[in-house]
Amino acid sequence: MTTDNGTERGWVLGLMSGTSLDGVDAALIETDGERVYAFGPHATLDYSSADRTVLKAAVQDALAWNFTGAEPASFGAAEALLTGAHAQAVAHLLALPDCPRPRLIGFHGQTVLHRPPQAGHFGATRQLGDGAALAKALGLPVAYDFRSADVAAGGQGAPLAPLYHAALLASSPWDSACVVNLGGVANVTLWRRDDPPLAFDCGPANGPVDQWVEAQGRGNYDRDGALSATGAPDEARIKAILSQDFFAATPPKSLDRYAFTAALAEGLNPADGAATLVHLAAAGVARALAFADQRPERLILCGGGRRNPTMRRAIAARTNIPTLVAEECGWRGDAIEAEAFALLAQRVRRGLPLSLPTTTGVPVPLPGGRLAFPPDNANQSSAAPPFA
């Protein structure tokens, strides 16, 4: 099928495994890489506790490795587990009634370490996930390794979802908005109609809170904002953290998941520590708005943090901007990142840019990603088969 401008469009399945290590999100969209024409089903495959143990070991080993010397041996086991789990997620989704058959898979993999560029030195990024093995297992072309080309060109390598946010906002009733993704870290997409989006990581989000709650023996995360709601944020501590150079640095900028940790709340009781980390995330979002050319009409919250009522209230209070969660815009909050990598996979296939000077700091709009093909068409190296 072709669009009005003659470009091909079709069903693409996107996959995402976030730094919270909860599981694999899978989602189908019909897209030409520029617009979204239809939404298919989406689903999440949770990691087991044993899976999480393997993945956490790889993340901890990555932090100790820090791009120096041979890669940790644990990466091999983690990569095999991840690739298999993603194949299972695809199989689960495609088994749903009336599920469209995708012609392409977008496979982000699992980020285990991300180092932004600093002081004239290029950054580095490592995602685990075997695109060739996934293509073989599924019998479908797979787009993967979305970040490496950006980092090699001097970009931040993150965030990559802004082009998808812009595609969603194109049909919104507003002329400006800010999408706030509350994952392990927080990132913002500052959007104005007819302008390229400005996007950057703006501080911690769920990562330190999850780490803190787990250390207190209260579960894996601040469920329903219950613990943070009973505490009082340490405003002096938040102010001191916000004085760090990162928050004042001009975008583009990005963070590793462990750039900010639960140690920021050290010495506080469980409830006050959780409240402080939740309000720190909100304060980082508010600080980010200083880089906007104009005040956005709406904030739209995505990612796992949108489910934390304490974080939602804190962001609304500290920004004083009408704040919505993704679902209130008609978006599928649990599927947005997977959908984003479906759209980006189509852009890989078409050779379109994945990142812009205003999103990652690359010198020019930059294509990227790699394509892997199943054995029956493995001789193809740069273009996926045409859509029907």
Descriptive account of the structure:
With 388 residues, the chain is α/β, with parallel strands linked by helices. It has two domains: 10-157 and 350-377, 2-Layer Sandwich (Nucleotidyltransferase, domain 5); 162-329, Nucleotidyltransferase, domain 5 (2-Layer Sandwich). The chain contains twelve helices and 13 strands. It has a six-stranded mixed β-sheet with strand order 3-2-1-4-7-13, sandwiched between helices. It has a five-stranded mixed β-sheet with strand order 10-9-8-11-12, with helices on both faces. Helix 11 links the parallel strand 11 and strand 12 (323-325). Helix 2 packs parallel to helix 3 (131-138). The N and C termini lie close together (6 Å). 52% of the residues are buried. Residues 381-388 have low confidence and may be disordered.
Mean pLDDT: 94
The CATH architecture category of the largest domain equals 2-Layer Sandwich
Largest sheet: 6 strands, mixed
Report the top-level CATH class of the largest domain. Answer: Alpha Beta
Beta content comes to 15-25%
The structure class reads alpha/beta
CATH topology (level 3) name of the largest domain: Nucleotidyltransferase, domain 5
- Return Rg in Å: 20 Å
Q: Treating each run of at least 4 consecutive H or I residues as one helix, how many helices?
A: 12
Query: What's the shape?
Result: globular
Order of helices and strands: EEEHHEEEHEHHEEEHHHHHEHEHE
CATH superfamily of the largest domain: ATPase, nucleotide binding domain
What is the total domain count? Answer: 2
Side by side, the strands of the main sheet go: 3-2-1-4-7-13
**Gap between N and C termini, in Å?**
6 Å
